[in-house]
């Protein structure tokens, strides 16, 4: 029963994946394209490989010209398949470039483990087509999730950079704590200025005292005559000024 169902499933898969499946000449010849991907010597009569081409969004302009990535699913039938699970393995074609955001050395076990519920649900029935479909969706979901994470990180960095740039044009947001600090600093600065002004005025006042205060204006000769202050003790220069003042007087 097992072997017959295996052959029937393989024939159906050949018709569904005419360009993606490679296997032994017993079931069908290997096309020249697949001889480059996978030598027939690597596959026996109970094993074959299916090339899975996940639909991955282009992240940059270089991806537009790059060939679609390929993941190879190796399927090996145990004797009692489909009553027991098939043996599965994931790999990349020889010399194939790495797939962005996918590392089979660490992701292979995770992807294959995600197939276990599907395998359990389909025991006793041909399940490889369902597994291929599920696996392709899992690969695409994993890659898209990682691309989204990278984009979120870039967006966050961009937002932080823009916020720093905008902060140059806006004052600091006032909070109760920042206001109290400002008020304390303002009072300290005001107190210092007032103290400096007080000291300056004191120094000016001391300077006036030491200099004898404001010098009185000197009286002219006319003012001395009118005040009756002209006498022998008057200095000659004052008398001269007084005489000049008298000459200007008009006696009635």
Summarize the structure.
The protein has 252 residues and is α+β, with helices and mostly antiparallel strands. 54% of the residues lie in helices and 8% in strands.
Characterise this structure.
By secondary structure, this protein is an alpha+beta fold. Helix content is about 55%, strand content about 10%. The protein contains 9 helices and 4 strands, in the order αβαβαββαααααα. The protein has a 4-stranded antiparallel beta sheet. The termini are far apart. Mean pLDDT is about 75; it is low at about 25-30, about 30-40 and about 245-250.
| Major sheet: arrangement of strands | 1-2-3-4
User: What is the N-to-C succession of helices and strands?
Assistant: HEHEHEEHHHHHH
Kindly state the mean pLDDT as a whole number? 77
Q: What's the number of extended β-strand segments?
A: 4
Query: Helical element count?
Result: 9
Strand content: 5-15%
Largest sheet: 4 strands, antiparallel
Spans of at least 5 consecutive residues whose pLDDT stays below 50 are 25-30, 32-42, 245-252
Label the structural class: alpha+beta
Distance between the termini: 163 Å
Kindly provide the radius of gyration, computed on alpha-carbon positions and rounded to a whole number of angstroms: 52 Å
Helix content: 40-55%
Classify the oligomer.
Answer: single chain
Overall 3D shape: rod-shaped
